Amino acid sequence: MADYERTQAYREKLRNGEFDLGWMQAKSEWGVQATPSKRGLTLNDINIGSYGVIPEEVPDSRCFAPRGADFNAAEMPSMGYSLNTRAEAWAENMGTLYEEAVARQWSSTRDIPWHTLQPLPKDIEHAMCQLCTFFTEVEFIAGDVPGWWLSQINAAYHETKLFMATQIMDEARHLEVFRKRALANGGGLGKCPSEVEEGLKYIFDLRSFPQMLARLHLFGEGRVLTLFRLGELIAQNEVEKTIFRLCAQDESRHLAFGCLQLRYLIAQDPDRIEEIQEALDIAEQRVLELGATPEQVEPLLILLGGGVDRMQEGMEKFAFIRKKTVQEYLQRCHSIGIDRQERCLLKEAKEITLL
Amino acid sequence: MFTFPSLEWFRELARLMNENEAEFKRLGYADVVWAIEIQPSSPGQLSRCFRFVFEEYGCTSVEALDERATGEVAFTMQATYDTWKDMIKNIQTNNGPDLQHTLNYLALPDDPIYIAAPDFLSRDLFARYGQTYQLFMNGAVHVPTVFA
After folding, report:
1. Do A130 and A74 belong to one domain?
2. CA-nearest residue of chain B to A37?
3. A59 and A30 share a domain?
4. What is the DSSP string of A257-284?
């Protein structure tokens, strides 16, 4: 607990014209001279000496004191962090990923050529607006969930917290840009079915970080990445091409974060694999139960086919995309050390040969 | 004039990227080593591979790559000569690719461009710097080209 007597005594000292300066005798490492690299001073550049030592666990400290600072953990209030081990809360390359995220930020106000938008056929505009409505919903949860988990990570693992802050910013920008697209070309927002909300809400209810990473990043962001790349393919103009390509960049980075975290955890603690598999069991089951509503499927069929009278044509292309989504998901699982194909509930899994 | 495909053609593309640093800086830095493979479209044509080192906002190296060494890069964009020629001509004719000739459009269905990678996580680097690769290829607008 903070020592209020100390502040009282110090006020008295100040009134008497005296100073303390005891903080100049901090026990933390001194004389540190981080050297900027070509692109400036990065997080990796300052991970030197004791400041670059990532603790295997942080048993005592649950406070905001930054890694390497001088403090007495026993005197600090607890922020209640639940993620206090390196295996759970950190991974190699987090600093690099964070710097990349900061460098590759874009603006939905400035960087999309909105002025080039031209009216589209009514059915196409409807479909694109409905798709954008869906993406806006998805991006709310994609920001809210990391937001909650960010507050659970011990301050000693600041690289991870920093990256998650960039993900929140990215997702904010995504929901912003999709809302803008829906309202920029004579259309409007579409319908929000309860199935989508139910499918998203349970992610928020997960109380295991690895399970959240598996459900949101490995499973969810992987699917959304394919959808963004599909969005670029079905885009009707340069505005949509740019939106989807930029969003896909961000999504790919989030996916890398989740995969790197899970891969590191599995390498450190293989006993956690079953926990991750269970999360994927539920994720796949949810998609089977809730993933096929007209609001989610039909806009894609219209955009893939080229119109409401060509939805059957869109159906064939959609089948390819569904299989590709599952293939990529299983490949990523394999890459991080999870054998998922046998256990996968999605029917496309049986048709896939892992490369 | 630069002959496509050739080391000189791709080095000219890299020179344009480096000259246009301001545009690439707006996108943010990209650190990745990747490759393009031009596969034969007809008998007698040889397969050609080129390796690109993207560092920060530019391309620091373009080298010919033995196709057996493609495992050493993050990913390889593989397509036939005809596909690359068609894409480049489209970029040059329209001052940028039309909707059906962007890299992602051609690569998402895995045909006519296939993204080959030694590891699936490194394959995702294609999407991760997608806007940078597209802007790089768009530089073809300014490369006076003769097709081999």
Report:
1. no
2. B56
3. yes
4. HHHHHHHHHHHH-GGGHHHHHHHHHHHH
- CB pair distance less than 8 Å for B104 and A233: yes
Domain count of the fold of chain A: 2
Instruction: Express each pLDDT in B72-82 by its tens digit.
Output: 899 999 999 99
Q: Do B131 and A246 touch (CB under 8 A)?
A: yes
Residue where the block lists tokens 């955890």: A265
Query: Residue B93 maps to which CATH number?
Result: 3.30.1050.10
ipTM of the complex: 0.94
The Cα–Cα gap between B82 and B39 comes to: 9
Q: Which residues of A touch B128 (CB under 8 A)?
A: 249, 252-253, 256
Per-residue pLDDT, A157: 97
Residue B21: C-alpha distances to residues A84, A143, B74 (Å): 42, 32, 23
CA distance B89 to A280: 45
A328 and B120 within 8 Å at the Cβ level: the answer is yes
Partners of B111 on chain A (C-beta within 8 Å) are: none
A181 and A220 fall within a common domain: yes
Q: Which residues of chain A have pLDDT under 70?
A: 1-2
Q: Which residue in chain B has the smallest CA separation from A256?
A: B121
Do A76 and A190 lie in one domain? The reply is no
* A243 and A276 part of one domain: yes
Residues A150-168: tens digit of each pLDDT: 999 999 999 999 999 999 9
Inter-chain touch A249–B104, beta carbons under 8 Å:
no
- Measured between beta carbons, the chain B residues lying within 8 angstroms of A236 are 99
Q: Pick from A232, A237, A328: which is nearest to B102 by CB?
A: A232
- Please answer yes or no on whether B28 and A105 come within 8 Å at the CB atom: yes
pLDDT in tens, B103-135: 999 999 999 999 999 888 999 999 999 999 999
pLDDT, one tens digit per residue, over A274-319 is 999 999 999 999 998 888 899 999 999 999 999 999 999 999 999 9
Range of the domain at B8: 2-147
Q: Give the structural domain span for A75.
A: 1-80
Test B121 with A332 for CB contact under 8 angstroms. yes
Find the CATH number of the domain harbouring A252. 1.10.620.20
What residue of B is the nearest CA neighbor of A319? B109
Cα separation, A131 vs A191, whole angstroms: 10
Neighbours of A329 (CB within 10 A): 27
Q: Could you give the strand order of the β-sheet that contains B114-116, starting from the edge strand earlier in sequence? A: B58-64, B48-55, B32-39, B76-80, B114-116
Q: What is the dihedral of CA A155, A159, A163, A164, to 10 degrees?
A: -20
The total of structural domains in chain B comes to 1
Q: Between A249, A320, A355, which is nearest B127 by CB?
A: A249
| Helix runs in A56-121, H state only | 86-89, 94-103
Q: Do A248 and B127 touch (CB under 8 A)?
A: yes
